[in-house]
Amino acid sequence: MAEHRSMQRAALLDAARALLSEGGTEALTFPALAERTGLARSSVYEYFRSRAAVVEELCEVDFPLWAAEVAAAMERETSAEGKVEAYVRRQLALVGDRRHRAVVAISASELDAGAREKIRAAHGGLVAMIVEALGELGHEQPRLAAMLLQGVVDAAVRRIELGAAEDPGVVTDTAVAMVLRGVTG
């Protein structure tokens, strides 16, 4: 029984990822989850009390995996500049991944205070990964620099997701140049 519930919960989370990826937060409804998984709508409520609960669990499950991929890319680099570049490139390479699309859709949605705090804490952990490398590069306020650097990454993510005229590789290269050399390119 426990294994069955675990499999159903995983199927619901996978369906939620797909819905968020395909249609944003508006698409994440309990009737849609029920239809995707073949469960009755009332059964979905046995697993999650609300849409916010689905979102919170997706963040708890997916964000650490995504962050681990960014951390692994950074760990392969030996220089501070290489770590910064890996931080940017890996995040932007994950843009097409359903887990990433779900996290982005989630962060854009209106959530309760608890869910927003969990997302904020997860993003804080991501930003914390780059603080040391920025300190090594000589930034007097590496935490502030990390938050601003993440702003560049977030803007590049939005540009890629919009399907802008630029190739995603061009957006990525430009974002890397911006964070490493500023506007002088």
Short description:
The protein is an all-alpha fold and 185 residues long.
The coarse silhouette is elongated
Number of distinct helices: 9
Major β-sheet, in short? none
Strand content: under 5%
> Helix proportion of residues, in percent?
over 70%
The total strand number stands at 0
Can you walk through the features of this model?
With 185 residues, this protein is mainly alpha-helical. The protein is 78% helix and 0% strand. The chain is built from 9 helices and no strands. The chain has helices at 2-23, 30-37, 41-47, 51-75, 80-93, 98-108, 113-136, 142-161, 168-181. 28% of the residues are buried. The mean pLDDT is 86.
Draw up the topology in text.
Layout: H1 2-23, H2 30-37, H3 41-47, H4 51-75, H5 80-93, H6 98-108, H7 113-136, H8 142-161, H9 168-181
Question: Main attributes?
Answer:
single chain; 185 residues; mainly alpha; 78% helix
